[in-house]
Write a structure and sequence with these properties.
single chain, ten-stranded mixed beta sheet, LTD domain-containing protein, DUF2278, Immunoglobulin-like, Lamin_tail_dom_sf, 4 helices, Lamin_tail_dom, mainly beta
């Protein structure tokens, strides 16, 4: 069993003022790991915009009976993703996303698998709190939160609002669960911490090592592990006890083809004579020819392009696909799915990057 997850509670502390962001309210950031509380589904999903002022963590001295491993992703330098434009326009407080038009591909809602938020191989499997430096979740979270407080950054917290409106929980991946947590599964309902600093953005994504790397799109069994038996977990994919070479080999098996570049917004009127077509370029990471028949390219609207029978990519070769689905000029998502529907690779780009030149990933 694993614990329910990270919880964040609203503060009643004094209000800090910020002339540049006058509508941001402060909050007390309290990350705790609860024991096995009954919970049947992820409800009241949304994003909370606030101002961090202080925090406290529950460490192993306070909870020594629920050891667990967590999946940790972060972008410590610069989180560049199109959703930040929408986030910056939000008012303070909690914004409900569940059941709205924002809970979809290209909306405000987050999905660790479908939104192409990070490179899967960059994840780390870490315990909650152990001796030593830079080797557990708390060691990773404290520096970024300290910087956010000291610089009066803005934070956007994704998760489920408490019934009393005084906090938010499920600030982690909310799909790929098995056993008693199956009913928590869904798509576009994942939690996260996204920080808006004065000159850049940073993000933290947390999941559980026991969750599946691939999940069902739905509508039936949305967010359920894929396949439904013997599925790959993050613990399998990123096992810390395995060598980098072994993990690299498994990464190539799971993602044999990468999206390397895209011509999103070629100069000239769209789909007119003399205007270059939009394209997506693929790279074969293996030494074998790969049959791409039935593979799909999916964009942020959810529209897909099926690659025709006989489409092949040579060993360690590249192939450029002319797209029949329009790539958004306002920032977008491009995902490559194999014939079985498994995600092979995914990328994202911002509006600024779609400026008439080739976007390199």
């Amino acid at each position: 069993m694993y614990p329910l997850g990270y919880h964040i509670f609203r503060s009643r502390e004094r209000v800090l003022t910020d002339n540049s962001l006058p509508n941001i309210q402060p909050f007390l950031l309290l990350l705790i790991v609860l024991r096995y509380l009954p919970f049947t589904m992820v409800k009241d999903y949304g994003v909370w915009r606030a101002k961090p002022v202080s925090y406290t963590f529950e460490d192993r001295s306070e909870d020594s009976h629920t050891p667990h491993l967590s999946l940790y992703f972060d972008d410590v330098s610069n989180f560049t993703y199109d959703v930040t434009t929408k986030l910056a326009e939000l008012r303070n407080g909690f914004r409900h996303l569940q059941g709205t038009s924002e809970q979809r591909l290209g909306g405000l809602a987050l999905d660790y698998i479908r939104s192409n938020l990070f490179s899967r191989a960059s994840g780390r499997i870490l315990p909650h709190d152990v001796d030593g430096a830079d080797n557990d979740i708390l060691d990773q979270l404290k520096p970024i939160i300290d910087r956010a407080i000291s610089t009066e950054a803005t934070v956007y917290i994704y998760g489920s609002e408490f019934n009393d409106g005084k906090g938010i929980h499920n600030v982690h991946m909310n799909q790929g669960n098995s056993g008693r947590w199956l009913k928590d599964n869904g798509v576009f309902q994942d939690g996260a911490l996204i920080f808006q600093f004065e000159d850049h953005w940073e993000a933290v994504f947390i999941g559980f090592a026991s969750q599946a790397v691939h999940t069902e799109d739905g509508p039936k069994r949305a967010g359920y592990p894929l396949p439904n038996q013997d599925f790959m977990t993050w613990a399998n994919f990123l096992a810390p006890e395995r060598s980098d070479d072994d993990k690299g080999k498994d990464d190539i098996v799971d993602s044999p083809v990468f999206i390397t570049r895209a011509l999103v917004n070629p100069p000239g009127p769209d789909q007119q004579p003399g205007t270059a077509p939009e394209t997506v370029s693929l790279k074969n990471r293996t030494k074998d020819e790969i049959d791409l028949s039935g593979w799909k390219i999916r964009i942020k609207t959810g529209d897909t392009q099926v690659l025709p029978s006989g489409t092949r990519i040579s060993p360690v070769g590249t192939k450029t696909i002319q797209t029949s689905v329009p790539l958004s000029n306002n920032g977008g998502i491009i995902t490559l799915l194999n014939a079985e529907g498994f995600k092979v690779h995914g990328v994202s780009y911002t509006r600024a990057e779609a400026n008439g030149t080739t976007v390199v990933f």
